Amino acid sequence: MRKGTLLNGPLTGLIGSLGHSDKIMVTDAGWPIPENAKIDLCLTHGIPRLHEVFSVIASELMIEKVIIDAEMRACGPQVHDVILEVIAAQENADEIVVAYEEHDVFKHHATSAKGIVRTGECIPYCNLVIVAGLAFTPPSGGSHSGRKAG
Fold first, then answer.
1. Catalytic (active-site) positions
2. Which domains does the chain carry?
3. pLDDT band at 48; cut points 50, 70, 90
4. 13 near 84, Cβ under 8 Å?
5. Is the peptide bond before 32 cis (omega within 30 degrees of 0)?
6. 101 or 140: which leads in pLDDT
7. 36, 114 in Cβ contact below 8 A?
8. pLDDT band with cut points at 50, 70 and 90 for residue 143
9. DSSP code string of 56-73
10. Which of 9, 29, 45, 80 lies at 20 to 30 Å from 122 by C-alpha?
11. 70-84 per-residue burial string, b: 16 or more CB within 10 A, e: under 16
């Protein structure tokens, strides 16, 4: 049995497969998800909450950017506030870009996301996209070997 925070096998596999700039979505219970991209964590109304799932994912993944469904601020301000708290608690918080997109634009991420995680969140528009960052610092000078070109 895994000793880490995340115990869900499919979600662990998805996170392990992400490369730099890959995206995953974390959505409310009503989001339409194609079967091939779905990780369904929804148990019942409100379980698990979107911010709980995001918090666990954030503990396992270096995040470069979080794109928030802009309507979340009006429809789910409490969820929005907790999402920002989770981001602020990350070791690279000052480097994480937070962006907002209107729902009609936001929903297009579903076609390019590597996976979509459905939560039990029943507040409309509580959806976000997580863009994976790098868990290491690339060497400066353009060489990936760590040596200067000679």
1. 20
2. 31-132 (3.40.1650.10)
3. very high
4. no
5. no
6. 101
7. no
8. low
9. HHHHHS-EEEEEEETTHH
10. 9
11. bbbeebbeebbebbe
